[in-house]
Amino acid sequence: MKNLTDSFVSLGHWPFAGSFGFNTDILATNPINLSVVIGVLIFFGRGVLSDLLDNRKQRILNTIRNSEELRGGAIEQLERARARLRKVETEADQFRVNGYSDIEREKLNLIDSTYKTLEQLENYKNETIQFEQQRTINQVQQRVFQEALQGALGTLNSCLNNELHLRTISANIGMLGAMKEITD
Q: InterPro entries, alphabetically (predicted)?
């Protein structure tokens, strides 16, 4: 047993020539050993590598499929948006054309109503002028009549004496009496 423990203890003292390790000298390595190692790696690693590549391929295909679906949806949304834009532009053009025609129609209506209002105002003005002229004429006639009446009364009062006055009153009474007899 002592031998066995000595062998473990002295493991650090083994010479390098008899130990297992990698020889980094390419000319000294055996190509067969390398081919065996590479073959083992390919044989055992092929399944794992194939699975990894298949999983990666499926993820890429799924991503492409999803991207195509999203692209198709985006294209549909873009076409709908373009159709809505064309519709809105058409409606805007119609509103613009209708708005311009409505504005022109309202403008013409406003001009017509303004002309009618001006015509009515002109008629009212003429009627007011005629009314004022007639009123002024009536006032002048009344004044002239009053002035004439006062002048006549003044002339009569200055020309009439008591006797002439009594004769005029009795003549008028006689005329009223005659008229009364005729009507009865």
A: ATP_synth_b/b'su_bac/chlpt (IPR002146)
- Cα end-to-end distance, the chain, whole Å: 190
Number of C-beta neighbours around residue 17 at 10 A: 5
pLDDT tens column, 111-145: 999 999 999 999 999 999 999 999 999 999 999 99
How many Å is the maximal CA-CA distance in the chain? 200
Return the domain boundaries, the chain.
33-183
Name which of 34, 36, 33 is nearest 44 in CA terms.
36
How far is 111 from 118, CA to CA, in rounded Å?
10
Nearest to 168 by CA among 158, 180, 178, 156: 156
19: tokens are 């130990």
Nearest to 99 by CA among 111, 91, 110, 109: 91
